[in-house]
């Protein structure tokens, strides 16, 4: 940093709103900056000289520490500017992994994750990860190289209409066409990714724009005037909702991912405990309420617990916060919480009454609105009988499973063993499929931002790159465990090369059944057991593959190996992979078939 | 080994009495309550920049909103354009359209126009010119202008509300229509009523018509995020 002489500070020119004044004021600003530099310890960065430096400066100003990406022709100027930056760039093995790593970084840290890719295939490889972030409202900024503007539209080498391709899967995107604006475009993208309902944004960066000379420092990361967010809900509706809660016979709180993103977990926990309201979460809402608490009914929905599904089906008042009522949660709309008056808290007005009609629509920031409700609710609902009923369901529909020692290892046992071997604040990432559901059901989550998964898009292969991003966002003493499936792991395991190179302490437990297990389960239930393309028949030995990458490899075949092997893998200071050979016929229950009635969940295949 | 979990089977469980309709609204199980689609005009003031039209049209196609026409054009402010969309949806769908449009960053304000708003579209109708006098008479009947004529064809410009255009086209069809080009509806609110305000920012929700939410208790809520 010391080689960076103080010439002009970005803050100085930012104060000038008018472009022309800012330009002409540079000499003055430079003098002021020098005097400033004498009095502050912070070294002042050198002024930007081109578009790429403005892009990197925008990231630095936003406080970015890590970026994930892959080099390539059209993004080279930006990488050249990154070369001199304190931002730590993690070179990924594939752009999809860069997007997932940045996405997970955003989930764990709460700040937008940054991913970079070149034009054409670099950008299109990011798309899966961007779409994933869009479905889960994760803050993410994607920066893509683009062919020089004079070639745009000519089908040039590695040209793709990146903003066109990503429009449906981004919160906002921009084709940057002005070197003087390019830094501010990135600042704005960063702000938009974070503000209100978070989401992915993208800035497409033509190579000539990033190479062009400019001395324009980026504006502060602010959202445009056309973007406004309502923080506080309408007090009249808050009062009406509060009255409804006070008079509820069978109240339930349904906490979604918005509770975690809105930092409302603590407020919700206090509200639930104060008024003794049973709490159900959605899958993204896992971690918003401690699952070891008596009031926790855990996750509802297609593979939610029986007791959570009974609670949401029979409640008469549902306080739903930060959830978009996804079909995997609601099952059939006709039978979803059919007796319940719904109080819906969401920061996005478009989610209100989109899938489930809100009787009490409360648009606003989750934490703010829960505080408003706390003030408005004067008396707890009289729901002793209902709470007893919920506890009864917890024992009626216990998640206890059979694990005979002479049979193949049951996956639930492995998840529980991993949970026991690690601290409460351990971060769990997953791929998508059966293993993901077991990880939901049999790990006891107690803290927000410890569950990192692909919910809405359901992206197989999410787990390992997510573990890389989560590792860099986590505290040093936090463990990161990736519970993966064999099919999911196979999709992105090239990320092991990154984990080894960066010496990231992560443990991957592959629940290996040599099937696309969830598909196999559905084929058994709904396609007469015809295992079309779901049986891999052959899988590489993941422990040996891990060793080939330079990671530690372990293998589990029987129950007697589970505890010790997990202990060794967790203890290893670096990436490790446990190839866990589980019962290939193990199924996920309870299960509500697509569009089914949550209250009619199946506990075994013959009930489907 | 046994596969699955223990517990009362589905048929042994209590079931609730209520039901919701497909729009997620609780209904009396005896009375099927559905919203019928209706046609309405939505006007959006947007930043005049590349990509806005595709943002808007893409939104309609990917969310399967039924649109009848979409027009776009500049306004008196060089930085703003107006998009006018005619949609046909049930009330909850119209409400979603407005909310989803408002979420697009380049969209400044959105409003559903009153039924009495001024709505116009333009059609160019190219007909066979075998009976020029009769063509001219019909054109006059619909306040149309003949904008091109040659021995074989005459092209008449007709403007007006959709019903008038349709009636004109039907009448012209007696001459034999060669080609038609229509613009779709453009519209403005009447009198001092603003079609879509030019400032989006912050003013706590004022005068927009309440969203067409229905049923049960709280029927309306306010945005501070939009237009009004």
TrEMBL record, chain A:
Q: In which pathway does it act?
A: Amino-acid biosynthesis; L-valine biosynthesis; L-valine from pyruvate: step 1/4; Amino-acid biosynthesis; L-isoleucine biosynthesis; L-isoleucine from 2-oxobutanoate: step 1/4
The annotated regions of Basic and acidic residues compositional bias extend over 205-215
Show the segment(s) annotated as Disordered.
1-49, 160-183, 196-228
Per UniProt, the keywords (alphabetical) are: Amino-acid biosynthesis, Branched-chain amino acid biosynthesis, Magnesium, Metal-binding, Thiamine pyrophosphate, Transferase
Q: Which GO terms describe its biological process?
A: isoleucine biosynthetic process; L-valine biosynthetic process; sulfur compound biosynthetic process
The EC number(s) attached to this protein equal 2.2.1.6
Question: What Pfam families does UniProt report for this protein, alphabetically?
Answer: TPP_enzyme_C, TPP_enzyme_M, TPP_enzyme_N
Looking at the record, the residues that make up the Thiamine pyrophosphate enzyme central domain are 238-373
Compositional bias (Low complexity) at which positions?
Answer: 40-49, 160-174
Indicate the segments forming the Thiamine pyrophosphate enzyme N-terminal TPP-binding domain, all copies: 50-163
Gene Ontology CC: acetolactate synthase complex
Q: Which catalytic reaction applies to this protein?
A: 2 pyruvate + H(+) = (2S)-2-acetolactate + CO2
Which ranges carry the Thiamine pyrophosphate enzyme TPP-binding domain?
Answer: 431-580
UniProt biased composition (Acidic residues): 12-21
Cofactor remark: Binds 1 thiamine pyrophosphate per subunit.
- The answer to whether keyword Metal-binding applies is yes
Q: Does the keyword Hydrolase apply?
A: no
What is the superkingdom listed in this entry's lineage?
Archaea
Q: Which family does it belong to?
A: Belongs to the TPP enzyme family.
This one is known as Acetolactate synthase
Q: Which organism is it from?
A: Natronorubrum halalkaliphilum
User: What lineage does the source organism belong to?
Assistant: Archaea, Methanobacteriati, Methanobacteriota, Stenosarchaea group, Halobacteria
From TrEMBL, chain B:
- Please give an example of a GO cellular component term from this record: cytosol
Identify the keywords attached in UniProt to this record, alphabetized. Amino-acid biosynthesis, Branched-chain amino acid biosynthesis, Transferase
Q: Pfam families given for it?
A: ACT_AHAS_ss, ALS_ss_C
Which InterPro entries does this UniProt record tie to the protein?
Acetalactate_synth_ssu, Acetolactate_synth/TF_NikR_C, Acetolactate_synth_ssu_C, ACT-like_dom_sf, ACT_dom, AHAS_ACT, AHAS_small-like_ACT
Which regions are flagged for Basic and acidic residues bias? 25-36
UniProt-annotated stretches for the region Disordered:
1-36, 192-228
Q: Where is the ACT domain?
A: 41-115
Functional pathway: Amino-acid biosynthesis; L-valine biosynthesis; L-valine from pyruvate: step 1/4; Amino-acid biosynthesis; L-isoleucine biosynthesis; L-isoleucine from 2-oxobutanoate: step 1/4
Its BP terms in the Gene Ontology are:
isoleucine biosynthetic process; L-valine biosynthetic process
EC numbers listed for it are 2.2.1.6
Respond yes or no to whether keyword Amino-acid biosynthesis is given for this record.
yes
**Compositional bias of kind Polar residues:** 215-228
Task: Show the GO MF annotations.
Answer: acetolactate synthase activity; acetolactate synthase regulator activity
From the UniProt annotation, give the residues forming the signal peptide.
Answer: none
| Stated family | Belongs to the acetolactate synthase small subunit family.
The record's section on PANTHER family has: ACETOLACTATE SYNTHASE SMALL SUBUNIT (PTHR30239), ACETOLACTATE SYNTHASE SMALL SUBUNIT 1, CHLOROPLASTIC (PTHR30239:SF0)
Spell out the protein name for this chain.
Acetolactate synthase small subunit
The primary gene name is ilvN
